[in-house]
Amino acid sequence: MDQDLEGTFLNMLDVLHPKIFRICISYTKNSEEAKDLFQEVLINIWKALPNFKNRSSLSTWVYRITINVSLRYRTNLMKGKAKYKYLGSIEIEHIPAVVQDNSNEKLEFLRACVRNLNEVDKALITLFLEELTYREIAEIMGLKENTVAVKIKRIKTKLLNCIKDKL
């Protein structure tokens, strides 16, 4: 195993794991599914890491993989295909603690509303909620920055209406 690759992977994981996990949970029904999806994302990142060419920042590249794996997961779930098999746990102590606190009712309403968005809108708002800039989101999603800004504004309105309906 290449020490540089392993170090890069572990450093990336240390910094980005909460954001990756929150993206995963927005594409799943519960934290157990999110853990499985998170594991699948990590496997995909690890397999692709030797091909990372520094054409974008590592975090942008990781988010792109996370979104793509999450979209594939949702597509397979909707088609009734159980593509992902449990491969055993990855021992990272602090991952589940990131989003285990489900006590905030408004946060749960927001998550439910986000889950009901179409896949592109879900990806856009999830990245926005992770405090990525419009430029970073545009790069990850392959859109123009102005398009991202307009779509985010519309998505916020949809989410606000959805949350109001639930309260």
Tally of helical runs: 7
Low-confidence stretches: 82-102
Round the mean pLDDT to the nearest integer and report it: 84
The helix content, as a percent range, equals 55-70%
In this structure, how is the largest beta sheet organized?
none
Total strands: the figure is: 0
How many whole angstroms does the radius of gyration measure?
A: 16 Å
Order of helices and strands: HHHHHHH
Distance between the termini: 52 Å
**Secondary-structure class:** mainly alpha
The global form is globular
What is the beta-strand fraction?
Answer: under 5%
Task: Provide tags for this entry.
167 residues; mainly alpha; 69% helix
Account of the 3D structure:
Helix 1 runs antiparallel to helix 2, helix 2 crosses helix 3 and helix 6 crosses helix 7. The protein starts with a helix and ends with a helix. About 13% of the residues have low confidence. It has 167 residues and is mainly α. It is globular and about 50 Å long. It contains seven helices and no strands. Helix content is 69%, strand content 0%.
